[in-house]
Amino acid sequence: MWFKWFKKAAEQSSSADGMPELLAKTLAEFQSSEFPMPLDSLIQQASFNSKQNSLSLTLKFPWSSLADELLPVLQQVQPNLTLELRSENAAEPAYRTIKQVILVASGKGGVGKSTTAVNLAVALGLEGAKTGLLDADIYGPSIPTMLGLKNAKAESPDDKHLLPKQAAGIYLQSIGFLVDPEQASVWRGPMASQALLQLLNETLWPDLDYLIVDMPPGTGDIQLTMSQKLPVTGALIVTTPQDVALADAQKAISMFRSVNIPVLGLVENMSFYQCSHCGEIDDIFGTNGGLELAERYQVPVLGQLPLQKQIRQSCDAGTPLVLNPAESGTGFYRAIARQLSFALYWNSQHQQAQQPDIIFTDD
Ligand SMILES: Nc1ncnc2c1ncn2[C@@H]1O[C@H](COP(=O)(O)OP(=O)(O)OP(=O)(O)O)[C@@H](O)[C@H]1O
Predict the structure, then answer these.
(1) pLDDT in tens, 205-230
(2) Is any atom of ligand 1 closer than 6 Å to the C-beta of 162?
(3) CB under 8 Å to 306, separation ≥6 — which residues?
(4) Considering the entire predicted model, what is its pTM?
(5) Ligand 1 nearest-atom number relative to CA 309
(6) What is the DSSP letter of 98?
(7) Of 28, 38, 196, 235, which sits with the fewest C-beta atoms within 10 Å of its C-beta?
(8) What residues bind ATP, as annotated (predicted)?
(9) How far apart are CA 363 and CA 22, in angstroms?
């Protein structure tokens, strides 16, 4: 059998003849430029409707932009074919309705952790994942502003639970909806981690593939306690390439490893600046520091992001850059989102992370 789901696809097809053989063969032989494995191994289910000339694929992780690459190839052998892509996250829920919880952390402040977290969460949504974002940055909850909800307040349907807000295709909860940021920034470790747990616990999250948690910067007690108390699937480290940021990113990797949280990857933000007039590239914060750190610690680099005025402007305006497909930076975030989804899928298949026990208490 030259590919495993062909028979299944033929059986499930609404046509008596099943999927046309040439189409099935083309699909089976397709290899995306993005992942080093045949597409075949990333398909959960395939079905072809001959009356509608439509193909429906269920992928093992959210990857709706695959259509841009795949459909033109399939249409060469099956003219006018339409393609529907879905995904199924097979991971066991990390917490109630949430399949996987991902911490976005940085050792150093101001490296673009929140900007990366918000664009990444929205990009995951655009790739077809049901995504939530929990803003746990008690020192400066900036995500409400970045999603156009600056003055919004928490809402409760019953005085016990909280409703998540919805913006840019994702669900959002922030410590900034509940308390004055200046008040929260003086919280000590136990108070901060208790407040975060409550926020996670009391929010009426819908079924989610991913919950992205924007952590406060640093690697002190607060971050350690939060990481240990949350039902974490893995962590993503954001750094800039200069030495001071890398030293702190290194501490963050060590901190997560000390509590058995898998580091899924590293994102190097502000890696380069490209002049919008002459196109020349300048490495303002140094070159490839993140890549070297990642190699030393055997952590995958999920992407390098440019220092770009539009990234800052769009976040200040409450509409993350990734929502605008015309912007050149969008592709970087979408690619990182796919790499992250793939890493999560791969880890869930190949690793049983040692999770800390999560205990919720009322005190
Ligand atoms: N790639 C980028 N290009 C241009 N500006 C950026 C980029 N990434 C982040 N910024 C800008 O840098 C500033 C700091 O970013 P951000 O708030 O995301 O950092 P942070 O690491 O979350 O900070 P904090 O330590 O306060 O949590 C913001 O004004 C943001 O718009």
Answers:
(1) 999 999 999 998 888 888 888 888 88
(2) no
(3) 270, 271, 272, 273, 274, 328, 329, 332
(4) 0.90
(5) 4
(6) E
(7) 38
(8) 107-114
(9) 63
Interior CA angle at 64 toward 270 and 272, to 5°? 10
What is the predicted pLDDT for the residue at 8?
52
- Nearest-5° angle of CA 210, CA 215, CA 219? 130
Q: Give distance in angstroms: CA of 22 to centre of ligand 1.
A: 49
Residue 145 tokens, joined: 């502003």
Binning pLDDT at 50, 70 and 90, where does residue 197 land?
confident
Neighbours of 25 (CB within 10 A): 15
Q: Is the dihedral of CA 85, 86, 88, 93 positive or negative?
A: positive
141 lines ligand 1 (CB under 6 A): no
- The annotation status of 218 as a binding-site residue, yes or no, is no
What local confidence, expressed as pLDDT, does residue 362 receive? 44
Higher pLDDT, 207 or 351: 207
Q: What would the DSSP string read from start to end of 324-340?
A: -TTSTTHHHHHHHHHHH
Q: Is the pLDDT of residue 359 over 70?
A: no
Q: Which residues neighbour 168 within 8 Å (Cβ) at sequence distance 6 or greater?
A: 122, 125, 147, 319, 320, 323
Cα-based distances in Å from 318 to 8, 210, 265, 345, 353: 46, 22, 27, 30, 35
CA 4, chain centre distance (Å): 30
Check the annotation: does 4 bind a ligand: no
DSSP string, 115-172: HHHHHHHHHHHHTT--EEEEE--TT---HHHHTT-TT-----SSSS-BPPEEETTEEE
Least confident among 45-59, 174-188, 245-259, 261-275: 174-188
